[in-house]
Amino acid sequence: MTGKTRRKPLFPKGVSICWKLGSYLFALLAILLVILFGSQVLLSDLFFEHIQKQEMQRMGNALAQSIEQPNLELLAYDAAVDSAASVIIYRMEKNASEATQIVKVDLLGDTEVFFRADLVNEYYRKAVRNNGSYIGKFTMGGYEVEEDFWDLFYPNSYIKKDDLRLIYIDLVIGVDGAHYVMLISSALLPMQSMARTWEVQFVIISILMLVAVSVMVYLLYRKISKPLIQMNEAAKQLALGKYDVEFSGQGYRETRELANTLNYASNELSKLDRLQKELIANISHDLRTPLTMIRGYGEVMRDLPGENTPENMQIVIDETSRLSELVDDVLDLSRIQSGTRKAEMSVFSITSLLSEVMERYDAFTHHKGYRIDFHCNQDVLIYADRSMVLQVLYNLINNAINYTGSDLLVVVHQAVSDGRVRISVTDTGEGIAPEQMPLIWDRYYKEDKVHRRALIGTGLGLSIVKEILELHGFAYGVNSTVGKGSTFWFEFDEYTEQPSRALHEQTDL
């Protein structure tokens, strides 16, 4: 078999968030340490020299303002102390051919070694050629060390950094036109000690930062990764059907919100599982009863020729119709919830539709003794799916017949107020407890532990009512008083000329 062998991934299950956060933090730490090492150790000489040059220029400019003041030497001494430098000022005589020393502040103790009196004219010419000021590195004897020389020969050269001075030369012209040469010297030696100090500090800081990042990674693991791992394990248990698991997301807001959402999902799944089991039990009960009756009457009519009567055949037909209705209701509910059953919108009179429904119940009320009263004060148009609204009316009336009281009374009422139409169906039964009202619309809900077979319908009527009314965007609800009965109602806008935009959109549902 030919072909390339796929290489197994290093982390088959992926990299955890803890490792990713840790790698990002350590990468950031490495970048910061490189920046710190470069700025504090490798580039410290350049930074120090740059700062020293600026300080010497500032000092020279300040002394130049007082070059002919009687307290010049005292000012030079104060400035030298502040900047840890040495200062020598010469007055140039006879067209700058001779120099007279007027100020000398030798704080470094080696101006005689670095400043040669016979080189003052050379210092003067350097300043003149450089627009009045010059700064450079000089070694003992007053000799300047060029930068390229230093780069080429240090550290093999016998000249060491300890033997260097940073010297600033400034040419100052007095009020009477006299020329003065100011020499300011600063040692580079302190920089070497500081560099070694910074190297030690860099090692200590690196260790401390490494420890700090490690602690931070551990805290992130405790606050983020560990709760996620625990919730993942709990979710696996939830997938196995253990709905009593508890999700804990202590730490950050996002993990707490995720835990709360999963706990809510767990509770809903637990409720759904329980209600599904109840649905299966209820549907099985509704199926078993007619099937048992059909089988029983069929066996009787088979074994006893005299029992093959129209009455027994009618019972078989009625129970078969009941089975068909149950299957149709389950299919209708599934089609509406899945969106496969579309609403075919039209304008019709709901008052006339209610009157037709009342006529169809006449035979039932005549034989069974029920009384269904219908009250309305005007004809009302509605924009909706006629067959669906008809199904809602039948289901609400059937529900009222199943649960009405001993007086066998059901009242259907149509009321119009401010352009809103309310259709209500009232029974005089036992009523519904307040805590059970939000549950009665659920397709899986049964009010009591012992399933009650509906006198009319299949027991799924309220679930179908809820889905149809929500599909049309109609308001609906129930008002009930325990021991006095219940009133189921729904509301909609009365149709006048053009249906509202919301109703138009329902045609696409």
Short key terms for the protein model shown above:
509 residues; alpha+beta; Beta-Lactamase; Helix Hairpins; Heat Shock Protein 90; 6-stranded antiparallel sheet; 5-stranded mixed sheet; 14 helices; 18% strand; rod-shaped; disordered C terminus
Can you walk me through this structure?
The chain has helices at residues 17-42, 44-64, 72-83, 111-114, 120-129, 147-153, 189-239, 253-303, 310-338, 350-360, 362-368, 386-403, 461-472, 501-506, and strands at residues 85-93, 98-105, 133-139, 143-144, 164-173, 179-187, 345-349, 371-375, 381-385, 409-417, 420-427, 475-481, 485-493. It is of the alpha+beta class and 509 residues long. It folds into three domains: 22-198, 2-Layer Sandwich (Beta-Lactamase); 253-334, Signal transduction histidine kinase, dimerisation/phosphotransfer (DHp) domain (Helix Hairpins, Orthogonal Bundle), CATH 1.10.287; 342-506, Histidine kinase-like ATPase, C-terminal domain (Heat Shock Protein 90, 2-Layer Sandwich), CATH 3.30.565. β3 (133-139) and β4 form a beta hairpin. The longest helix is centred in the middle third of the chain and has 51 residues, at 189-239. It is rod-shaped and about 155 Å long.
